[in-house]
Amino acid sequence: MKAWLDRRGVRVSRKRVQRLMRAMGLRAIYRRPSTSRRSP
Predict the structure, then answer these.
(1) Which of 3, 5, 28, 31 suits a disulfide with 10, CB 3.0-4.6 Å?
(2) Are 19 and 26 in contact (CB under 8 A)?
(3) Residue 17, Cβ neighbours under 10 Å: how many?
(4) Interval 12-40: pLDDT, tens
(5) What is the rounded CA–CA span in Å between residue 9 and residue 20?
(6) pTM
């Protein structure tokens, strides 16, 4: 979110974005380890 805002010319700190996202109930989407896979 911070990088997206930076590209649009909005100067904001990472912590402010983190606080606002938490207040709005938003969560980041990112890759997680595949812990549900069976081992070979």
Answers:
(1) 5
(2) no
(3) 17
(4) 999 999 999 999 999 888 888 877 777 77
(5) 18
(6) 0.58
